[in-house]
Amino acid sequence: MQTKTPPSIFRTLLVLGRVSNLPTVWSNCLAAWLLNHGAAWSNFYVLLAGATLLYIGGMYLNDAFDAEFDQQHRVERPIPAGRISRRTVWQIGIALLVLGWLCLALLGLITAIMGLVLVGTIVIYDAIHKRTAYAPLLMATCRFLLYVVAAAATLRPINHVVVAYGFGLAAYITGLSYLARVESSGSLARRWPAALLFVPCPIAVWMTSVREVSAWLVLAAFVGWTLWCLRGVLFNGPRNIGRSVAGLLAGIVLVDWLSLPGPGNQTIVGFGGLFALALVLQRKVPAT
């Protein structure tokens, strides 16, 4: 009889950090950077490092705070499964948040201040998200603040376009987060949050009325992908909330791609590559 090999510590660390969602963090940074006319690409790479560390650190603290809940409802998670101690997860998570903020602090005072606000919001979300109905709004605030931080890293005044698309992303994240809560609680999904997922569409059309054909194709791809992910929620299909949530998480990249009025070859490679990478990574590491 063949026994299953226990997961390596490296895979455990990847699962804790939910690294399959990192392409969506990078696409958030890229979209806000381009919208705010960022030019110093060396700063952009520091921004990516800081955002990556903050995201992974936040995910570690998420599991540290949720250890008791996971012990009852998600025993496959690394802490209740005994693959890593809760204390170690606390230590790594806090260290990553500090390092991530220090990276952002290198990009100017405004970026440092907004980065600190983002860190605080991440910690608040991790601490109370299982105990409040407003958790989706907190998660949406985290992604909105990431847009603001990325725009501030350009060392230019944050323009209204960044704010508008940031709100569109926040609406999408709110709907997505509601569905993710349904997954963890096991209750049936209602249909109303799905409307929030499509808020980025009118914002994209309103903000840039003159859009190239390629931009309309991205809009169509976003709508098609979102409907496909929701087929088991909106229609009479097999209900698999986990699969819907994973697909919609990858769709964050498409939300960011919508912000560009005329995607050129470089942005097609950038956002298209990040979307594909998110889907590939989800086959290796769970997104939720």
Number of strands: 0
Count up the helices.
Answer: 15
CATH architectural name: Orthogonal Bundle
Distance between the termini: 32 Å
Characterize the largest beta sheet: strand count, sense, and whether it forms a barrel: none
In N-to-C order, the SSE pattern is HHHHHHHHHHHHHHH
Counting helices, strands and paired strands, the structural category is mainly alpha
Architecture overview:
With 288 residues, this protein is an all-alpha fold. The protein has one domain (14-282): Tetracycline Repressor, domain 2 (Orthogonal Bundle). 72% of the residues lie in helices and 0% in strands. It has helices at residues 9-17, 22-35, 41-65, 67-73, 86-105, 109-128, 135-152, 160-185, 193-196, 200-207, 213-229, 231-234, 241-250, 252-257, 265-282. Helix 7 (135-152) packs antiparallel against helix 8, helix 11 (213-229) runs antiparallel to helix 13 (241-250) and helix 13 runs antiparallel to helix 15 (265-282). The mean pLDDT is 89.
